[in-house]
Structure formats: structure tokens, C-alpha cells
Amino acid sequence: MPIIQKLALLPLSQRFIRILILPLLIVQLQGYSQSSSEATSYEKDILKQREEKNEELKQEKSPLTDEDKPDFKGLNYYPPDINYKVKATLTRFDNPFHFKMKTTTDRLPEYSLYGKIEFTLQGRQYSLNVYQNIDLLKKPGFEKYLFIPFNDLTNGKSTYGGGRFLDGEIPAGDEFVIDFNLAYNPYCAYNHKYSCPIPPEENSLETEILAGEKKWHD
């Protein structure tokens, strides 16, 4: 029975109380509906991006090995979870120093430590350093590019043991959105012929990030 009809059957005193509560209930239901709709739309966007990446990996220049390409059906992911998309605060370092980041080979690309982001995830505070690739900065369109490699407690279990990556752009202010649903594997996860950055030790999160791309092979 609809809420309005149920109210009509109540004693006058109880009916008055319910009438006071009803607008609040309606607002809450409307808020839930909007939130649910937002989450559904967000999930569709994430799934679409994943489908597009799968199609790219089927192409001839894919980083997959020649042995894996014929049977490739798609990458492995955690289900989209909007709770892993959080607002962070970006702190820029006044004098970002340059250094050589370790990779899976002898290659040592030059990076600068641009700053750090601080955020709350599942009630706990975390921070990650953000970097800029010096060579990439010289290419048009990459002047604001930020690189966020990280490790977490899923490494070697459900995700690639060498860590995962996130990309970002320098924001106008200090608000930065970090979305772990977009966390992706380096090419080394698919093919050992590639040379990939190793997340610095300070970018190790003492929690399981159950979002983004999972490991390619067991």
C-alpha cells in the first residue's frame, strides 16, 4: 500500500507525526535514487573504457605476446566501485627534485617528484607521491601530465606483483580526484620484453585496493 494511503488509516496523533516525517523520507529516497543513478552511469563509463582497451589490445601493435594475441578475450578487472573514486588534496613541492626511477631493466628514466596527494579511503588516511616524466614533459599535450605508480596489499595475489599505475593532470587548484577503478598494469605485466617503472617504496599503500585492473596471468 502507498505511504499516503497508510497515513490515512492511522490515528490522528500518529498521522501528524508521520506527516512530519514523510517529507524527510521522500528527500532521502530521492537522494538515494540520484546516487544510485549516478553510480550506474559511472559504472557504464568504466565498462565502456575497458571494452575500448580490450579492442586496442587486439590490434597488431598490442603489447601482448604473439602467443597470447590469438586467444585474447579481455583483461581481468575488479567490478567498478564508485567508492574507490575519492577526492584528494594535492600539495605541490616548491623545489621538485629530479631522480632516476628504477625499472624492470637497466633503464633509468628521469622523473621529477612534483608533489603528493592525501586522501581518505574507507575511513583511513593515505598519501601518494606524484611524479612527472621529464622526457614526456617535452611532448606537446603532456605538460600537465602526472604519473602515480603504487603498490598495495593485493600485489602478487589478485594484481600484478610489480604494482599498478594511475595517470592524472595538474589541476587548477589543490583538489585532485583519484580513481582506483582506472588503475592499470604496466606493459611488463603482459610481456617481459618491456621496461617498466617500479613504484618507489614510499608509494606503497598498507591496504588492499580492490579496484582497477587485476593480474593478466596467474
The helix/strand order is: HHEEEEHEEE
Give the number of domains.
Answer: 2
Radius of gyration: 23 Å
Q: Per DSSP, what share of the residues sits in E-state strands of 2 or more residues?
A: 15-25%
Give the end-to-end Cα distance, rounded to a whole number of Å.
Answer: 53 Å
Strand tally is 7
pLDDT averaged over residues: 87
Q: Largest sheet, if any? A: 5 strands, antiparallel
Determine the number of helices (DSSP H or I, runs of at least 4 residues): 3
Approximately how much helix is present in the residues?
25-40%
Alpha-beta content class = alpha+beta
* Overall 3D form: globular
- Give start-end ranges of low-pLDDT stretches: 1-34
Write the layout of secondary structure elements.
Elements: H1 3-8, H2 12-57, E1 85-92, E2 98-100, E3 110-121, E4 124-133, H3 134-137, E5 145-150, E6 164-169, E7 175-179
Antiparallel strand pairs: 1-3, 1-7, 2-3, 3-4, 5-6
